Amino acid sequence: MADSVCRELIVKAIFICLLKLAFSYSFRSCIELPESNHKIFRCIKCHETDITTIVGDVFPTATNLTISRNNITYIQGQSFSHLPSLTSLVLDDNHIVNIHRDAFNNLQKLKTLNLSCNHISFLHRDVFNDLHNLTDLLLGNNNLKSIDMFLFSNLTNLNILDLRRNHLKNFSALVECITNLSSLIQLDLSFNYLTNLQHSSRLPNSLVRLYLSDNKLHKLGCDKSFLKYVKVLDLSDNTLLSSKSFKGLNLKNIKYLRLRFTNVSASKLLNYTKIQPRYVDFSGLKLKDRALTSLCFHLKVYQISKMILQSNSIGVLKKNTFCNCANITDVMDLSQNEIKSTGCLQFLHCQNQLKTLKIEHNHLTRLMFCNTSTQLDSMKNLSYRYNRILEVSGNAFSNTPKLTNLELNINIIAYLDHKALRGLKDLVTLRLDNNLLTDIYSDSFQDLTSLKTLNLRNNQLSVIFDYVFQNLSNLRILDLGGNKITQLKPHALDGLQRLAKLYLDRNRLKEIDGTLFGKLHATLQVLDLQANHILYYTEHTYSPFINMSKLLDLKLDGQQPNGINLLPCAFFRGLTSLKSLYLTNNHIIGFGAETFDDLKSLEYLTLDNSCVGIAQLKPGIFKNLRKLKTLSTENMGIKSFSEAVFGNLTGLKQLHLNRNAMMTLDISLLDKLTNLTYVDMRSCPLSCNCQNSDLQNWTIGSKRLQFPYLFSITCQDQPGSYFHNFLTNVCYLDIALYLFSSTFTFTILLTLIPLLYIKLYWKFKYSYYVFRSWFGEQWRRLKDQEEKYKYDAFISYNSADEDWVMEQLLPNLEGSSFQLCLHHRDFELGRDIVDNIVAAVYSSRKTICVVSQSFLRSEWCSLEIQLASYRLFQEMQDVLLLVFLEPIPERQLSTYHRMRKVMLKKTYLQWPGSDCSDPNSAKELFWNKLKRALRSSNTGSQEKQKMKEQNDQKRQDKEGADQEEREYFVNQTPVDDEVYYLMP
Fold this sequence. Notes:
Blueprint: H1 2-22, E1 31-32, E2 40-44, H2 51-55, E3 64-68, E4 74-75, E5 88-90, E6 98-99, E7 112-114, E8 136-138, E9 160-162, H3 171-178, E10 186-188, E11 209-211, E12 232-234, E13 256-258, H4 266-273, E14 280-281, H5 290-298, E15 303-308, E16 327-333, E17 356-358, E18 366-367, E19 381-383, E20 391-392, E21 405-407, E22 415-416, E23 429-431, E24 453-455, E25 463-464, E26 477-479, E27 487-488, E28 501-503, H6 514-518, E29 526-528, E30 553-555, E31 580-582, E32 604-606, E33 630-632, H7 643-646, E34 654-656, H8 667-672, E35 678-680, H9 693-700, H10 735-786, E36 791-796, H11 802-814, E37 820-821, H12 823-826, H13 833-842, E38 844-851, H14 853-857, H15 859-875, E39 880-884, H16 897-905, E40 909-910, H17 919-935, H18 942-957, H19 963-971
Parallel strand pairs: 2-3, 3-5, 4-6, 5-7, 7-8, 8-9, 9-10, 10-11, 11-12, 12-13, 13-14, 15-16, 16-17, 17-19, 18-20, 19-21, 20-22, 21-23, 23-24, 24-26, 25-27, 26-28, 28-29, 29-30, 30-31, 31-32, 32-33, 33-34, 34-35, 36-37, 36-38, 38-39, 39-40
Antiparallel strand pairs: 1-2
Helix pairs in contact: 13-15
């Protein structure tokens, strides 16, 4: 047994490894949830209508698959057969009408199947046959009118069956379908068209929760013991259902019975069924005035922990209303009635053990002053939510001094008396949010020494005065968000010795007071300042967080009206423990290289919509963020994905780059970010040309990185084309064609040369001597011309670099008495361009090539550097100078063989960029070296000159040598040739 388990584990491990190596890590319609280890997938709002196309490329290791809000109408057979590990399959909110009988084959491990919110009207009896381990089946919100009696026959492990909101009418047929489901615990048939519970079979003994609300039940019509095992029964909103239907019914196991909005009499129900009153929800049974008094009298002999009386139109609560009731120990819920006043809760003076009172959704307008004559010492929780309370008077809660939880939120409280909360020393949670409070005072919370959570969100507070919270030494959470706060007084936060979370979002603060927040440095972990009016005008602002070394979460999103705009230098200094930073929607002009230097513990950073135009992220901006796991830079105008900016993010797992200006990605950098598992590039203008051919191959063949929705990324420069499959064959040399051409040519030559030798021997010999004579004369003419050069240097450059040539090169060289040859100025009009280039190269002592990316892409620049290199290698003269305007990787020079050959023999000059520590000195050194190189002679030493003369004499003596030997001599570069080295 152990050996088989080991073998299975080994096979799985090998399979996963092969999977990573063999499959592309991108999906046509789905995304894998980051860090789910190839197990959780979401396919939401896809454009495909074919389910097999949507899930066809999902990994076989998937355990959770959600396919929602699509246009699927049909599920084919074997649609998920390649996903044998699925345990949860969600197909809700589609347009599914039909499902093939074999659609769910090979899903033996499936436990949850959700088919709700579709248009299914029929299910084949065999459709669930393979789902032996299914525990949850959700078929709600469909068009089912009937169920085949064998539909669920193989679902022996089914626990939950949801059939709510269909068109089912025959309850007996439904019972026959489930009678053999020995594991069924919950059945939901709410919102159907059932008229009775007549049956020919029995419910499974395991069924404990049965929901039948919102049907057309007018009678039950079931066997007296039919529901004896059910513990939760919901029959609410069956308006025709009467008390007689329950006569003699066995409900001894019921733990919760809901009969809201039926025609059932509570008193008769208790008489007919002998059910325990503590398990009945008395909501919506028209219990008011006499009916409520009568019910209480009926319950007097019982022990009740919970009394739910919602939606009974109760308007007045008299002092003795509940005196005849049983002693309620835990909860009394009077919500959704018509109560206008509770007085001082005198109606509870007989209920001295009640712990929780809910009077929500009523018509209360005022909480009045209360004395201590009626003490409810057992009361712990009190809720007045969703009323119309305008005023809370002083000592309003004097009769409930032991409250730990008080909810006054979602009212219209405009006045809270100074002494309203007096005496609540045990209060732990106070909710005053969503009211109209304009002021809170220094003694408003004076007695709340045990308070841990204070919620004042969405009021009308504008100023937080000194010492308002001075007695709240145990407060952990303070929520002041959604007010109109413009100022916090210097001592506003005094006394908050243990505050961990402070919410000040959506206020009108214009600055972050470091002195004020610094008082919380020892405990504060969360600071929310979203959507305030914080704005800076200078980069040299003192960091407001300098002492907040315990802060873990900082939110500064969306400052109004137009963002922070200018982020000061070292703004986040001191936040050494920060884990999450939110800066979205701030339109920041620029980020300094040291902006995030102190955030060495940061794991989550979002900068979405935080730049203006094209973002120029400075090199090293993320240099200390080695623990960063998620970086979101959506719509920041980032133009390049460079190692200088992103290279230090070695711990990064998720990178969101969607809606930026990048046309390509540096795949070598992606390879270095070894922990990266998710890269989002949606809506980036990726170009579909040879520049991105390597990126295309890399993304499609990635072993570890997921590129969500890669197959939907279109080509910006080729409308109608997609990035994943644009043609790249023109970008690479076809090696097969190359070998065929070369071998074919070689074979033909071997065949023809003997024939031509025999037939045309004398013609070849004559032509050879004529060519030799012509070449020798041309050679001598060029050698003579060297002695009378017209220019000191010919400048080879691309028009894109013309500004640098005209503004930098020309003034510095011609200002030093050098004569330069330029295209637009010195080329002979009407002469062929190639002739002009040749004349310029050979009539200049040297050739200066101004190399840049644009230079390498120009055909004419390529010709010029080739001609200059011919002269360098053939004449053995130091005539070529290389000036690089920008750093260019060696791999981009791979196609320029002669340039690489020159660079191996010579160093080159690099134009100093703006990132130099002393650019002026660097530029001065650059010009000095270039001028020195121009002044150097093309001729070597006397020994070198003698050697050349001897070689010339040898060439003249060997008049009868064949052409191949002479060409070899001309093209061969002497090994010991001296080369002038330019210092970089």
